[in-house]
Amino acid sequence: ESCKLRAVCASIVDDASARMPLSYVHLVQLLVDTLVVLAPFALYPKLGVLTILMSPILAIFYRGFLELSKSLLDPFGNGDSLSENFSISCLLCETNAGSVRWFNAIQEVPFPTHAPPH
User: Fold this and answer.
1) Cβ pair 48, 59 in contact under 8 A
2) Rounded to two decimals, what is the model's pTM?
3) Where are the domains of the chain?
4) What is the CB neighbour count within 10 angstroms for residue 21?
5) Rounded CA gap, 73 and 116, in Å?
6) Which comes out higher in pLDDT, residue 101 or 31?
């Protein structure tokens, strides 16, 4: 038990020195949730019945950006996060395929690439 307590106490410093404090993440989560809940009431005087259509769209975008920002806190899944992580092998394959594509494209140029002799 004392080893577990010591490990938890040691991890507090790691969390405090993270790139973004956990309290900031919670604050942003609270602000987005508040915005999504209060947006229909704020939009109704201006949009009327269109508020019914616009509120879900607003919620989808704000919640999506929030999840994206959370996944960028640990993009490679090192902390066993449940959010969407980058696949390193896929990222490298796509990068290499793009570099070879442009390298091979020079062979198919429709105009001469060298100056004609004078």
Assistant:
1) no
2) 0.51
3) 2-108
4) 12
5) 55
6) 31
